[in-house]
Design goal:
By secondary structure, the protein is an alpha+beta fold. It has two domains: 2-215, Orthogonal Bundle (Endonuclease III, domain 1), CATH 1.10.340.30; 232-354, Nucleoside Triphosphate Pyrophosphohydrolase (Alpha-Beta Complex), CATH 3.90.79. 45% of the residues lie in helices and 13% in strands. The strands form three sheets. Strands 1, 5, 6, 7 and 8 form a five-stranded mixed β-sheet that branches. Strands 2-9 form a two-stranded antiparallel sheet. The protein has a two-stranded antiparallel ribbon with strand order 3-4. Strand 7 (303-306) and strand 8 (310-321) form a beta hairpin. Helix 2 (33-42) crosses helix 3. The protein is elongated and about 75 Å long.
Length: 355
């Protein structure tokens, strides 16, 4: 009886907070699983403020799952450019084709079926199932981990197998079974807007009279996360070709590494930061440019591009040559190609300085 009372109190307090602080978001105005799915995939690792423009662009360009399925991957990646974690876009496209071609455009309606789709894990499946189909399955994302760990004073690491299991069970126990979708969205919003990672609004918190972290001054310590990620340093040297007839070389990245399916300038990866002499004496450079060239370093200091598991120390080398049989892309057309944001930023700056 006590657990039931606590659960009801937590749920009612949260729903009441949501009624007063509800965000006007376009995906909140629909129960269409296609739109909910798009928003959930886009907002993984992305703030709402940044993801909004991408969501509106995607839903305008691809108003149905059939439209997304018919698009070529390069178009999808170009529209995704700047959001990062490009495997999300590739999985989104793959799953759209599966739903359109194998399921006649009908999105699965249960958690067990939704989670079988590529690129969809427990969190996204729970969100879609609860919001669109009123299934009683709790969402657990970064916001939820933070709220629950602080409120209940739980110091089990959220990225450990024990933590993942513990928080899922707790979230499921607290779930409002009469309105699971609204409750899940309220809990995520509360974490994003009120129980924030830095500077949470504890003074005006509706849970301040019963929050363990506030009582014990542990808000900065919770949630706990194990440090598992070992960052790898890599050194990239992009060769930006500019021929006499204003053409360059861009090629698609293959394989399963970073930026799969995106385009890049010819790349020489080195063991450390290198100078001009080391670059032009490398085998790949000699193969690419058997004829005379003029080479200059565009960025005076290497650009450090930080990914989740890698730091890329990058130099852009401008290589001017009369002609190159491999340079088939005109500089006027270069912005049509999907490229990593690191290269997109360079292109923007380079063209500004060239004009």
């Amino acid at each position: 009886m006590q657990i039931y009372f606590l659960t009801m109190k937590f749920s009612n307090t949260l729903i009441y907070w949501q009624l007063q602080n509800n965000r006007e978001l376009p995906w909140r105005k629909t129960k269409n699983p296609y739109f909910i799915w798009l928003s959930e995939i886009m907002l993984q690792q992305t703030r709402v403020a940044q993801g909004m423009a991408y969501y509106l662009k995607f839903t305008t360009t691809f108003p149905t799952v059939f439209d997304l399925a018919k698009a070529d991957e390069s178009t999808v990646l170009k529209m995704w450019q700047g959001l990062g974690y490009y495997s999300r876009a590739r999985n989104l496209h793959f799953t759209a084709k599966q739903i359109a071609n194998e399921l006649n455009g009908q999105f699965p309606s249960t958690y067990k079926e939704i989670i079988k789709l590529k690129g969809i894990g427990d969190y996204t499946a729970s969100a879609i199932a609860s919001i669109c189909f009123n299934e009683t399955t709790a969402v657990v994302d970064g916001n939820v981990y933070r709220v629950l760990s602080r409120y209940f004073g739980i110091n089990t690491p959220i990225n450990s197998s024990a933590g993942i299991k513990e928080f899922k069970i707790l979230a499921q126990t607290l779930l409002d079974t009469k309105q699971p979708g609204d409750y899940n969205q309220a809990l995520m919003d509360f974490g994003a807007l009120h129980c924030k990672p830095q500077n949470p609004l504890c003074e005006t918190c509706p849970f301040s009279d019963s929050c363990v972290a506030l009582e014990k001054k542990l808000t900065k310590e919770l949630p706990v996360k194990e440090k598992k990620v070992k960052v790898r340093n890599r050194y990239f040297n992009f060769l930006v070709i500019k021929t006499a007839d204003d053409t360059t070389i861009l090629s698609e990245r293959k394989g399963k590494g970073i930026w799969q399916g995106l385009y890049q300038f010819p790349l020489i990866e080195s063991d450390t930061i290198i100078d001009t002499e080391t670059l032009i004496s490398s085998e790949k450079f000699i193969q690419l440019f058997p004829d005379e060239t003029t080479i200059s370093l565009f960025n005076e200091k290497e650009i450090i591009h930080k990914l989740s598991h890698q730091h890329l120390y990058t130099q852009f080398w401008i290589v001017e040559t009369v002609k190159s049989s491999k340079a088939k892309i005109n500089w006027n057309e270069i912005k049509k190609y999907p490229v990593p944001v690191l290269i997109a930023n360079f292109i923007e700056e380079f063209q500004l300085k060239s004009n």
